[in-house]
Amino acid sequence: MEVKDSNGTLLQEGDSVTVIKDLKVKGSSATIKRGTVVKKIRLTDDAEEIEGRVERTVMVLKTCFLKKV
Q: pTM value?
């Protein structure tokens, strides 16, 4: 399974990505700001989602809002 970021670059386990758009967190009043770096990502079973640690919380993020660093 190939996992690609918003630019079509292949992502692998352990890569670092940057958020390209302010994202509201479901179930919270928090917002992930544009430019936030997510390090050491993990791939999920879904090709359109990755798992990463943002501000000490593990979250699942859509790859269409991410860019490889």
A: 0.90
